[in-house]
Please model this.
Amino acid sequence: MSTQELLCIGPECGARFPIGEVIYTCPRCQSLLEVSAPAPLDVEAARRAWRERRLSDAPEDRSGVWRFRELLPFDDMRHIVTLAEGNTALLEAPRAARYAGLDALLFKHQGFNPTGSFKDNGMTVGASQALRLGMKTVACVSTGNTSASMAAYASAAGLLPVIFLPHGNISYGKLAQALEYGALTIQVEANFDEILRLVRELAPKLGIYLLNSVNPFRIEGQKTIMAELLEQLGWRVPDWVVLPGGNLGNISAFGKAFRELRSLGFIPRLPRFAVIQAEGSAPFHDYFRRRGEFHPVAKPETLATAIRIGDPVSWPKAIQVIDETNGVVETATEQEIADAKAVIGQCGIGCEPASAATLAGIRKLAAAGVIGAGELVVAVLTGHVLKDPDYIYRYHTGQLETPSGARIEPRFANQPVTARPDAGEIAALLERYHRH
Ligand code: F0G
Model:
């Protein structure tokens, strides 16, 4: 077991618990928990080891999460379950930069992961903790990606995955993954927030280990996305890191990563964060407009179903990250998300709808002068383009509608055309296409 502990983040509590305790929130004050900071490191030696491990064939070295193991609360690699996650691409996207009004824009594409989303970075650590604790059954409530990821890692580890989904509100791609990876899949007639409340109550009673992002080990794994980004930038700190916000686990993880890497001496400063929410599911944005109490959104709506969340669990951690990095929170409309997504597609990159909220938000923040055209901006694309093919087809064929039934204008439409098996007809088609 690691020498690190679980810390309560409650300002008046600060209780500490052993790393092997099966708790998700503080038993004394109900606040969120986090893993204590890693031990001091020799910066140069660690940077060298992290790079050199990429040349090794050992599974724990090939993983883009476990090669940063000095940042994780595991002393030995005996219990880990890995599917060679992480090591995702950092891609330049000049066309998207022009669309946003920036000189340059980089996409850190977490869709390149084994199950196609950033959840794999967290799940390899969460599932490994379940193994280390000797748990047999793991569960999560999900808008789709967490469930796909948990199903894969649990099955790979020989654990039983149990998944709770909001019935009718996840994409088929994600549901298909859960089924294929062998999870017991329960579709509940309620939204994400309602189901999460239910399952958080149920899990301890049934002896099930909960792998939602309220689990501090998930957050630990997601930290490595930022370590890897910094490595890819030659340890230059970006001016902005932009990401979509749903349950707010990822922003909490990214903030913790930068905080720790700064105090360990890897970087001299923090970037600014921009969290983008879908307009109909934006409680975090509402909070920063008004401050005061945090108010959930009772009936969150968005076609970007991954971030259709009204009562995000990690809001206290996320507020801290925005405050300490002079960050901002912005919203994007359904039309803005759909168009930004098509532009990311035209870059040859592609992503799922929630991920495209980043580009939509950057465009607004650049137009408002918050993000400068010459700044170093990295947007995190959280999920793969094939997670939600139905959305893509509807957009390009002009059939996509907002949750309230308004038509989304396919401004970047690319309609499929139909032809008979006739060489002349096809040649004429191509001729017309070229003239366009
Ligand atoms: N992007 C994608 C593709 C997601 O799947 C999620 C969350 C987010 C962004 C938001 O990240 O919750 O850390 O703020 N999906 C969760 C799920 C809720 O169940 O798959 P967050």
